Amino acid sequence: MTVWLARSWAMPLLACLLLLVSLNTPTPEPISAPSTHTLDSNRQLFCGLAVADVVALLGIGVASLAKLQWMRAEKARYQATMRYCEHSEMTMSGAVKSQSTIKGEASCRSKNPAVLPTNWPILRMFPSFVANLHKMNDYFTLVLARSGHNFRVHGPPGTGMRFFVTCDPANIRHIFTTNYTNFPKGAEFAAIFDIMSGGIFTIDGEPACRQRTKIKSVLSNPQLVARIEGWSRDKVENNLLLLFTHMARTSTSFNMQELMSRLMFDLAAMPLFGVDPGLLSLDMPPMEAAVAMDTVMEVAYFRVVVPASCWKLMRRLNIGPERKLKAAHKVLRGFVMEMMERRKIDTSSVGNGKQHEGVDIMSSFLDDPYYTDDDMFNALTISYMIAARDIVGTALTWIFYNLSQNPNIVSIIRNELSPIASCKVAAHPDAMVIFEPDETKSLVYLRAVLYETLRLYPPAPLERKMVVTNDILPSGHEVHAGDTILISLHSMGRMEGIWGKDCLNYNPDRWLSEDGNKLRYVPSHKFLAFNSGPRMCLGKDIAVMQMKTVIASTLWNFDVELMKGQCIEPKSSCILEMKNGLIVKLKNREMLH
Fold this sequence. Notes:
By secondary structure, the protein is of the alpha+beta class. Helix content is 53%, strand content 6%. It has a domain at 205-438 and 538-592: CATH 1.10.630.10.
């Protein structure tokens, strides 16, 4: 009976009838929230909801009632498509695929049209989304590969769930560059990332241009760039490599993802406030603000892929992922206040070597009356912290993951580093080799390794845009005003039609010219890791510099060993962090010093 209900329209209809019976007041009037939990007060609360809220509640109720049946059905369909992974070491969330695995995947896709989302009566494709929330990036990849890089998603009537999902480079160029004014982030995007609303990542039009101009000017300040390079170099030498030396000496396994998060948290806060939070240290202090950032991105991910009416209702009822968001916001605002207080103390001190130099990001914004509003200020600072910490920290984790499985690539990197390192070793045979930021700028193969990692594991795997007016995309698909467009960066890097038959192989050589002396040109609408068009990433050069410094200094001094038996999979978040972290051991390469 339950199987029949799950597979037909009976369950949605039954749930709908039950809800309608409970809402037996023909002309509901909005009232304030009830003070008791009696049946009457609950009925009044429901009667005060908007039609969209009722529909959303129906969706949540049905998803809960039929969760087991739907997830079993979707799991069976997903496993049928992923059967080729049975004898491989990793799923699509893992790194390297053999050629036989790729062929098996292609064959499996061609024989399994069931990959496409089921279009249920009333609820449409919403149940498929609910069942696949925990693996949405892989699910999008499978569906996009089966549907020709584009597909539509429709949710229950009244929820506004009209998604067009794409990874087509021609469409991306149209959306991000050719006709970008028709595809803004939109007001709903700002609502999704509410604590960052007003920051550069959530705004469009003239305010976005104003902030971009301001930030571009700040980040191009030679004094600030020099300080960021110095901070990055010193943090690697005095904190990261010191910790790594301790881990190697004691043969202690540790979570590389956590250390990269701590490192980048400090390196994000230092140029922003001119203050070092000190999260990366031997005593490993609590990192409440970093955990709060993770919460913000996890809840935002949920908001991105479900109807707005659903998450807004959950926020109103204080249930589900929405329940923990208020506490996270409070922690982040408290962190900003604490950093500003520490900055005030440091910059007002006399004779302690920290006399205010006027070279941090906040100095430029505090002098501008446009940014004096507290909410705007919080949005700016938190946006920068999340971008700098999450994007670079996550990328570094995936780089170490892939390199630990590819010792041949590590050897090539070390050969590229050798001319620089040999001079340092000759001068200081017993010292750690630290690579200065300017020493790694010309390292072509190391940059190819970074780009190859970002191709397969983009830290921000999903972009979201809104449609202002009706338009026809280069793929021939028509999109309508009010539609939401989801661009899957994760899928784009894994499409055979875009990157060739070896698209799932981790191969930095694909980025090199024939002679290997320079990088191939790849347009940004094909490689979207640093965005494209007018919203191109302003911090790209700084991010690349920091990644090169960390990777070069680590690989020259240590061997990184991936601990066996781990389940490497991404968490459900707007950032492609690993759900269970990355547990590694280090071995000191003392014989080379």
